[in-house]
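2024-03-11 09:14:02 DEBUG pipeline.ingest accepted 1 chain
2024-03-11 09:14:02 DEBUG pipeline.ingest length=428
2024-03-11 09:14:03 DEBUG pipeline.predict start
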Amino acid sequence: MLGIAAISVLVAGVALLGIPAAVASGGTSPYTTLSVAENGSFPVGVAVDKTTDTVYVAAGPKTVSVIDGATNKVRATITVHIPSAVAVDATNDTVYVANAQKGTVSVIDGTTDKVTARITVGDDPNGVAVDEATDTVYVANTESGTVSVIDGATNKVTATVTIATGTAAADSVAVDEITDTVYVTNGGLDTVSVIDGATCNGTDAAGCAQTPPTISVGDDPFGVAVDETTDTVYVTNYVSSGTVSVIDGATNTVTHTVPVGTQPYGVTVDQTTDTIYATNSIGSGTVSVIDGATNTVTHTVPVGSYPEGVAVDETTHTIYAANYESGTVSVIIPASVCVSPTSGHSGKSVTVSGRGFNPGETVKITYKTGLASPKSVTVCTATSGSDTSYSCSGTIPPTATAGAKGSHKIVAKGLTSGIKVNTAFTLT
């Protein structure tokens, strides 16, 4: 793809580390975006270890930046060579980086932030994914038109899957650990290859080498991600007027085509919320938010210039987008509100907290009374911190009444951004 190829011809610049800067996500879209500068000049790939709250960013020409998810600051920089993609094995605290022009994969110990091994794979590796259930790593080698299968315990290539020869294939790769299925996008063929992981995890190298079946998608597919809970695969079609193909993993058929932004590149899934995030690269500078239940775009979040890789932390629901031209990582934080306790009588003391509002912004907390007048009463106000979090305490208004229903709303609204979210409170 354009971003990967450009790394080899552009001269490295310098991105200074600093305190994340906040920008509104636009209108009443319930997202706030922070921008983190990192040491690499051209961020292309990103992966999250939700166990350690750590973000890894592959950035040309020769680094992997390690970002502390709690502070959104770079804590370490690891030297590799022309990194094009990165994946995390959270079980073993190991990071795998595809080095495009070297035909290798760097293995990083997440505890020490040190490269412990380099594995030779095929030509121009551009995608990498981990099956933690089998301790297997899959690497998409574009120029070779192959997928290298690596045993994570030994760091040895145990098999090579032939996708195609003589044309661009094997761009990105994703794994469904539940079905032990591997999906590989083939940009030059407009297809997705489906590999049986049970055959290719070292038990049948000869059978693994056979050309796997394919699914036709849109023009120049690149990014791929899997929702294991719904057995659904999402593929960004880079040229097809900005679309994402939705594939039923049970039947290997395209069930929906979702219009997104211009030239969508990367894609990731938050399986806990059934939400899909796709980066829109050239001319867009946005991330499309797709509702997995309806296959529709619910929001479009502005980020940096030419976003490529994208990943989500399913614990915090924070999204990370690597902005190739900006030299930054956008940290997209969904607005949230919670109340403790979640039920009580009028006059009850409560604490309201959450995140996802602009740093320094006043967040007003109101209670919907269920009455004709007053319809709402202010509970408390808070100022959002540098990490977008807020908290304040107050009481449920004495005028509150259960009325015809017991469940009312507590609403948090940013007075600058207009972002508004709510949660239920049961009046007893």
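2024-03-11 09:14:41 DEBUG pipeline.report Helices lie at 2-7, 197-200, 205-208.
2024-03-11 09:14:41 DEBUG pipeline.predict end
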